[in-house]
Structure formats: structure tokens, C-alpha cells
Amino acid sequence: MQYDVAVIGAGVCGAMITRELSKLELQVVMLEKYNDVAMGTSKANSAIVHAGFDAENGTLKAKLNVQGASLMAYYCNKLNVPYKNIGSLVVAYSWEDMQTLDILFERGFQNGVPNMEIISKEKLKAMEPHISDTAIGALWAPTAGIVSPYELAIAATENAIMNGARVMRNSGVFDIEYKNDMFFISTAKGVIKAKYIINCAGVFADKIAGMIGDESFKIIPRKGEYYLLDKIEGNMVNHVLFQCPSKMGKGILVSPTVHGNVLMGPTAIDLDFDSKLDLDTTIDGLNTIKQEIHAVIPELTTRNAITSFAGLRAHLEGDECDFIIRPSEKNEHFINLAGIESPGLTAAPAIARYVGEMFCEMAPEYTKKENFISRRPAPVRVRELSLEERKKLIEKDKRYGRVVCRCEGITEGEIVDAITAPCGARDVDGVKRRTRAGMGRCQAGFCGAKVVELLARELDVPMNQITKHGDNSKIVFKKTK
User: Would you state the torsion angle of the CA atoms of residues 113, 115, 117, 121, taken in this order, to the nearest 10 degrees?
Assistant: First the structure.
């Protein structure tokens, strides 16, 4: 199989870039090692749209952060992805912290972040009634927000497929050879040929670059652990609440999610180079979150935690603090994206445009399509419909009247839609990310078996072939009676 461009990695950046390239008259394929898109950093992060005051002035990271924040609402509207512009607060608890806020404000001003303000304790209390009495002020950035990162990646992928792109799952790359002006990419599903490669492999970007002899950077997996609280805690926090940042990142934060839960985390622990699959949560990490969040909102506890999880950030080794987005010195037809940690999600729309422009300069022979489809249709969300709208929908298709996930109000019709979509779910976690079936208080305790049954039925495979998240994560092995 031969393509013009192969994008390696189906995280939010890989998906947005693939969508951007699908605007051109070319053949593009996105290769993903796992059973679904958004299986790496994009499924386990803080889901924050950062305003842009953290990145150092003059860096590519600062530029693309601010651009990405301004573009996020537009893209989420086009792709029908949940997004809320709720703003962020960096909270100060000492006069030393207040001096840090001055530095962040100046940096944000230089980066072009609009409408920032350093606010008093009184205004902070009015905005966040449950904030600790020890807080003395905050940096208010109204352009910040929250988004669903995995839904953004899925939607961008579906829109790319609508425009002719191909996605190959379970296609991990284990070798790349360049000859006769063509890359020969050895994958778990055979050899793929492509004229250009865009390396979006996240924590594995250094491994992919090394396959063409590019050893110019190394990725350290930086693990962050999180608590997710039930929606009953949703009124405890109104904005994204940061502590003052450290050299390890933006610290433990607390934030609403776009679906009404509360997210707390992450920790920041650098792992060994060989620990790029370590997603275990730890007692120490989760206790750290509890202690630090108690100092921010004393009334907020983990009694109503419904799950905990961990994600990995692609942190560059050494003093490099900027994004790497450039052609490799080993081969100018191979574009590296490396170190795309926070604010990588925020920057993703701008990164896609940046790479698209870079590619068009590199390969001007590829012209724009006249019939590009820019909008991904909105999935049916029964829980968001009025009673009259639900009635009409159920009259057309009774599957939308059969509730499968009671916690989140997800119906059989919605699950079937998620399985049969252009980049449809192939496992239980894939259904969860697309519909929220299994993301409620019981964490699939009641709906899990029904989701397995629906996957088997719609994919026309035995139930014992359905997995939780691909590989060997089987749920049902054989009949017992």
C-alpha cells in the first residue's frame, strides 16, 4: 500500500494533522499501534485549554498555545466536541506567590494572552466560594477553558476519514527504511510505503525518529496521577484552579470537566526511558493529590471519587523546554513532533495548521480540495434532548428508547452509532470514550455486560473476542452454562 503521507500516532495532534492534510489532494494514512485512537496521552490528561501565560516568551510553545486557545472553540464547534470557556485562576497563598503571579502576568502579556487580571481575595472568593481562606489573590485568565481531549481526537479522525484519509489501527511501527525517495514502514499489518512521514508518536517519538537514525532528542515519560469525582461534587469548583507552577509543571489542579465531574491532579514523576507503558496509580501519588487539594478547597474530599487513573506526558530530556516541530536533520521528508506535553492539547489546532503550512511549503505540488467537508455531524445525545425531541427520535428508532447506561443515560441507539461511525469503537473503552457508557458512578458495573453484547452483535464476532481495550484484555472467555 502506497501513500503520499503517513502520520504515525493517533493522538489529538496526529488526528488534527491528519484532518488538516485531508484538505489536500493526496493520500494520507494515520498509523496507530493500539486498538483505537486517543489511547496515549490524549485519553489521560487534565483536559485544560490553557490561556498561554506559562510558556517562555518567544518560544514556539508560547505562540502555538495562544493561537490554539483562540482556535479551540471554532474547531470544537466544527467537530461537535464538548468545550467550555470557563477561565482559569492561578491562586496565591503568600506574598511570594503574588510575586510569581506578577511574573506570569507579564509573561502572558508578552505572549499575547488577552484580558488577564490579578484579582483580590474578595473577588476570588466571589468567583470561588469554596476556596481556602488562606488564599490571598489570583491571576484570572478568562480565555482558558476545558475540553474533552479524546472526543476531539475521535472527531478529528472521523472528519479526516470523511475526507478520504485512512486510519490503520493495531499497526505499530517497528522499522523504517528509506530508498528510492520512499519510506518503507514496517508495521504489525505489513509494509506501508509513503513519500513523507509525520512523527506524532508521543512518548515513543524518539523511538520512531531513531528508526531513521535521528538520535537528536530523548523522551522522558512523566507520569501524572488523577482523581475523578462524581458529578455530585460538580458545584464545588467553577473555574480551572491552578497552584503556582514549579519546574515540574503547573502543579496539582482542580477543575470541572465538560461533563460535570471534578478532576484533581496531576502528580509529576519522571520515569525511566523504558517505562513508557507504566500507567499504575500509587498510594503516594493519590495521597499527594488529596493533601494538596485539601489546601485549595478544604471541603473537597475523595469520598465521592469514582475512579483514579494515570497518564504519561512526553517530556524532553535536558534543558529543551520548547516543542520540537521540524523536519529531521536525517531526512527532510520526515517531520518530528516531540516534547508535545502541556499545553499540547491546547496547541493542537494551531499545531495542525503549523504542520499543514510546513508541509505545503515542502510539497507545493499537492493542491487544496474543492470539496473538503469541514464539519463532523453531531452524535445523537439523548440526555441532551427535550422530551418532545426524544419522543420523535424513539418513534423513528426504538433503540434510542432503551437505556443501557443508567448513570449517564446512554441508550442502545447511541452505542450502536458509536460502533458504526467512520472511526467506530472496537472495544468497551472505545464505546466509553465515544458515548460515556461506563463513565458514571458505577463505572460500568451495570452496563458493562450489555456493552460487550452490543459490540459482539454489531461487529458480528463472538462475545469472547470483545476486549476492554484491545490486545489481550478479554472480558469473556467461554460459556459456563
Answer: -120
